[in-house]
C-alpha cells in the first residue's frame, strides 16, 4: 500500500537504507549507533526494512552496506546481490573500497550482480572524497552509469566534508552522485554554500530530525525538488516517523511526489512509474 497523506496517495521509495547479513546485523547496527551517538530504532535486517517500510507505505528501497576493509567488498556485494534477487523491492548499491586495484574487474562483478550504484562512507572507510587516488574509479563508475551515494558531512571529521565533494565535482562536474543527508550531516549550511549541480542529488535522510523546517526547506530548494530524495538511513530511523517529518515540511503534492518517488525512479531508471 502506498503512502496516504491528506487524502493523496504517493508511491514512495527509501533512497538510503543499510542492511546487514543476519550474523552481524546486531553488532553492526550497534556500532553505527555508537559512532553517531544515536539510539538505533531497528536492527538492520532486510526483512525488518521491508516490514517497517511497507507498514509506512514505502515499497522501494536503495540498500547498501559499507566495506571498511578491501577484503569485505566481494562478500558484501554478494550479500546485497542476493538480497535484491530475493526482494525485487530492493535497488542494490555496491560496496567499494579505495584500495581496490582491479577497478574494471570489480565493476564487472558489480554490474554482473545487477547492482545499480555504489555507496561510499568516507568517514568509516577513512579516505577523503577528493583524494586523487580515487579519480580513476569515479571516472570508471560514471562511464558505466553507476551513481555514487556518498555519506557526506560530519563536523567531527574531515573525510566526507561537502567541501571535498565540491572539489571533486570541480574536476568531474558530470559525475552522477548523491550527497547523503541533505548534502552534509551537521554541515547543512556549508553544503548549501558549496554544492550544487545538474547531476548532484541529495537524500533527506538523517537530517529532518536535526534541523528546523526553515533550514530543511532552504536546503531542499537550494538543491532543487527534482534532486532531493526521501530516505530513512535505516536502521537509524523509523519510516513512519521520518515520513511525518517530511510531510510536515508542507511541500506541494507535486513536490512530495518527486521527492518520495519520482526522482528516485528517474535516477535508478525504474521501469514502472507508480
Ligand atoms: Zn549511509
Number of strands: 10
Indicate the CATH class.
Answer: Alpha Beta
For the record, the count of structural domains works out to 1
- How much is the radius of gyration in Å? 17 Å
Strand order of the largest sheet: 3-4-5-6-7-8-9-10
Q: Would you identify the CATH architecture?
A: Alpha-Beta Barrel
Question: Any idea of the CATH topology?
Answer: TIM Barrel
Mean pLDDT: 95
Q: Low-confidence spans: pLDDT under 50, at least 5 residues?
A: none
For the largest beta-sheet, the strand count, sense and barrel status come to: 8 strands, parallel
Ligands and ions found: zinc ion
How helix-rich are the residues, as a percent range?
40-55%
Structural class determined from secondary elements: alpha/beta
CATH superfamily membership: Metal-dependent hydrolases
Query: What fraction strand?
Result: 5-15%
Number of helices: 11
Distance between the termini: 11 Å
Shape estimate: globular
Describe the structure.
The structure is a single chain. By secondary structure, the chain is an alpha/beta fold. It has one domain (3-267): Metal-dependent hydrolases (TIM Barrel), CATH 3.20.20.140. The chain has 11 helices and 10 strands. The chain has helices at residues 22-36, 46-56, 73-86, 103-112, 122-125, 135-143, 162-171, 188-194, 213-223, 239-247, 253-267; strands at 3-5, 8-10, 13-18, 60-64, 90-95, 117-120, 148-150, 177-179, 200-203, 228-229. The strands form 2 sheets. An 8-stranded parallel beta sheet has the order 3-4-5-6-7-8-9-10. Strands 1-2 form a two-stranded antiparallel ribbon. Helix 8 runs parallel beside helix 9. The longest helix has 15 residues, at 22-36. The model has no long low-confidence stretch (mean pLDDT 95). Bound molecules: zinc ion. Zinc ion binds next to strand 3. Zinc ion is lined by residues 16, 18, 151, 180, 233.
Amino acid at each position: 500500500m502506498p503512502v496516504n497523506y491528506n487524502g493523496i496517495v504517493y508511491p514512495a521509495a527509501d533512497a538510503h537504507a543499510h542492511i546487514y547479513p543476519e550474523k552481524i546485523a546486531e553488532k553492526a547496527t550497534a556500532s553505527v549507533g555508537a559512532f553517531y551517538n544515536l539510539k538505533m530504532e531497528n536492527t538492520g535486517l532486510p526483512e525488518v526494512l521491508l516490514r517497517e517500510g511497507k507498514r509506512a507505505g514505502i515499497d522501494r528501497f536503495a540498500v547498501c552496506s559499507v566495506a571498511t576493509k578491501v577484503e569485505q567488498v566481494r562478500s558484501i556485494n554478494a550479500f546485497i546481490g542476493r538480497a535484491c534477487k530475493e526482494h525485487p523491492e530492493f535497488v542494490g548499491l555496491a560496496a567499494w573500497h579505495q584500495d581496490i586495484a582491479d577497478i574494471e574487474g570489480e565493476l564487472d562483478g558489480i554490474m554482473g550482480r545487477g547492482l545499480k550504484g555504489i555507496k561510499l562512507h568516507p568517514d568509516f572507510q577513512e579516505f577523503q572524497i577528493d583524494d586523487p587516488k580515487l579519480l580513476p574509479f569515479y571516472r570508471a563508475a560514471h562511464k558505466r552509469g553507476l551513481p555514487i551515494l556518498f555519506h557526506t558531512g560530519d563536523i567531527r571529521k574531515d573525510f566526507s566534508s561537502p567541501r571535498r565533494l565540491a572539489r571533486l565535482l570541480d574536476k568531474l562536474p558530470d559525475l552522477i552522485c548523491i550527497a547523503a543527508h541533505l548534502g552534509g550531516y551537521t554541515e547543512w549550511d556549508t553544503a548549501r554554500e558549496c554544492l550544487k549541480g545538474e547531476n548532484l542529488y541529495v537524500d533527506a535522510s538523517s537530517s529532518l530530525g536535526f534541523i528546523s523546517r526553515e533550514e530543511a526547506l532552504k536546503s531542499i530548494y537550494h538543491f532543487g525538488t527534482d534532486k532531493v530524495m526521501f530516505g530513512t538511513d535505516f536502521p537509524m530511523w523509523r519510516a513512519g516517523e521520518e515520513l511525518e517529518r517530511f510531510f510536515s515540511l508542507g511541500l506541494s503534492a507535486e513536490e512530495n511526489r518527486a521527492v518520495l518517488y519520482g526522482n528516485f525512479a528517474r535516477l535508478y531508471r525504474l521501469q514502472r512509474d507508480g
